[in-house]
Amino acid sequence: ETEASRKKTDEQIAQTGQPNLDPTLFFVKQTISNACGTIALLHSIYNTDVTIKPDSPLQKFQLQAIELNPDERAKLLETTDLFATAHATAASQGQSSLPPNLDTNQHFVAFVQAPDQGDGDEVDGDGMRLVEVDGRRPYPVDHGPSTDLLKDAAKLIKEKYIDTTDSLNFTIITMGPPQAD
Fold it and tell me: pLDDT tens digits for 71-119?
């Protein structure tokens, strides 16, 4: 997806909104340089029904951020040492060296499912939406109904990202329960 295409989508969302998108979806703006992986991970964890360990840094941040808007969440993330400490510890244990120039042309986003809010009418409990959550954008992006997160996200990624470029720089990571036998 090109930058121009993203901008056009963002402008359309600003004008028309996204009435089917669940307003409780967790979204935080990315204001920290090169933190897109952390932001994508937070979006992935906080928009699932995974159990977060009580009193862990993840739960503490979630509880502090839950009532804040995306910009306030970003400020909280900037000013809290919950993640700075964890990041420094993990980085010091890493096996790779830091490049001299940390400016990269790479980016992480998350695709999650969120309940379909419909158009104000009752919505079937199974109704879910495929949502792209990218901290560098002003809003999450609702990509429509979703019955299978992995299949729906893979189809969208192929159509919007892989089929539109010759670049081989593309990685997909999934998080989820193990497949049943």
Answer: 999 999 988 887 767 666 665 666 655 556 555 567 889 999 999 987 6
133 DSSP assignment: E
Could you report how far apart the first and last alpha carbons of the chain are, in Å?
Answer: 36
- Per-residue pLDDT tens over the stretch 133-149: 999 999 999 999 999 99
CA–CA gap between residue 34 and residue 54 (Å, rounded): 28
**Rounded distance, CA 177 to CA 47, Å?**
15
Q: Give catalytic residue positions.
A: 36, 107
**Tokens 């509880």, residue located:** 63
Amino acid type, 55: D
Reference 111, options 89, 137, 131; nearest CA is 131
CA dist., res. 68 & res. 27, Å (int): 10
